[in-house]
Specification:
It is a single chain. The protein is α/β, with parallel strands linked by helices and about 325 residues long. The protein has helices at about 40-45, 60-65, 85-90, 100-120, 120-130, 155-165, 180-185, 190-195, 215-220, 240-250, 285-305; strands at about 1-5, 25-30, 50, 70-75, 95, 145-150, 170, 185-190, 200-205, 225-230, 250-255, 275-280. α7 links the parallel β7 (about 170) and β8 (about 185-190). The longest helix has 19 residues, at about 285-305. The chain is globular and about 60 Å long.
């Protein structure tokens, strides 16, 4: 049995689980680089493929080429880059791991990006390493307005932290109810009010056909001069071209963990944008999450081989 563990960027997968427990007949290969256009050829001989979140898309067209595939294991309970219906129609079992710390890690990173952007920490870090001293004049969060686009599980975690910083919190989403806002003590606003009235806008929305491009030129143009956009959800929520224009013009700044294309191409203009703080989709990448992901992969493979799949996606 051949097993492929994909997108192990940090090369930690072999040491975080007991892969030998699967027995000598199980051959496990770890990939630390994206497969890109070669995915079908590379994965053709594998019966089991383990996915790290949504790093490797699994659309129906790719699945159809993987004739030997019998089991997919994806980290976390949701993977929107995987065509689950196509996999099941092809007779492929799909299982998932538990989420680990990722539930908390993403919102913590949102605050890290927010603070780094407002205090220009990456720029000042670079200057001090060059033998220079302070250049920027930072801003504080206290007394500012945090606008949350999305008030689900992750968005709700932002609220008590914002209060600790002394921020007012407003929220909007397409399905947001007055009851949800009252429960969390958040002021409900319209979409236009969120972007026009917030000092920081943080996105906590699920990517779907309805939410794709939900932050466009109109929303970015409505933001206060000097306002901050934080995106730790999904890149395509934001019109990337419009965002680049707003950043280049110096109207807003941004803290970004997610992008339209990942990994971000080497020559992508965001890489040289001085008004953005960038991280390489680190939201869920923590020791605690990884310490759960990889052992759960092994458990899922073993259970499937025993005829009793665990955490099966249906």
């Amino acid at each position: 049995m051949r097993i492929a563990v994909l997108d192990d960027y940090q090369k930690v997968g072999p040491g975080l689980a007991d892969w030998d427990s699967l027995g000598p007949e199980a051959s496990v290969d770890f990939f630390d680089q994206p497969l890109g256009d070669q995915a079908a050829d590379i994965l053709a001989d594998y019966e089991v493929v383990c996915l790290m979140r949504e790093r490797q898309p699994m659309p129906a067209a790719l699945l159809a080429q993987l004739k030997n595939l019998q089991l997919l294991v994806t980290t976390g309970a949701h993977n929107r880059a995987l065509d689950l219906a196509a996999a099941r129609a092809q007779g492929v079992t799909v299982c998932h791991t538990r989420g680990g710390e990722s539930f908390y890690a993403t919102t913590e990173l949102a605050w890290a990006l927010m603070l780094a952007t407002l205090r220009r920490l990456p720029q000042e870090d670079a200057r001090i390493r060059q033998g220079l001293w302070q250049e920027s004049v930072g801003r504080v969060l206290h007394g500012r307005v945090l606008g949350l686009a999305g008030l689900g599980r992750l968005g709700a975690q932002m609220v008590p932290v914002a209060r600790a910083f002394g921020m007012e919190v407003v929220a909007w989403s397409q399905n947001l109810s007055a009851e949800r806002c009252a429960e969390l003590g958040v002021r409900q606003v319209t979409k236009a009010e969120l972007f026009a009235g917030s000092d920081v806008v943080s996105l906590h929305l699920v990517l779907s056909d309805r939410s794709r491009g939900i932050v466009g030129r109109a929303e970015l143009a409505a933001m206060k001069p000097g306002a901050v956009l934080i995106n730790t959800s999904r890149g395509p929520l934001v019109d990337e071209a419009a965002l680049l224009d707003a950043l280049r013009e110096g109207r807003i700044t941004a803290g970004l963990d997610v992008y339209d294309q990942e990994p971000l191409p080497v020559d992508h203009p965001l890489r040289s944008e001085k008004n953005a703080v960038l991280s390489p989709h680190l939201g869920y990448v923590t020791e605690g999450s990884y310490a759960l992901f990889f052992p759960d992969m092994v458990e899922a493979i073993a259970a499937w081989r025993a005829g009793a799949p665990v955490r099966e996606l249906r």
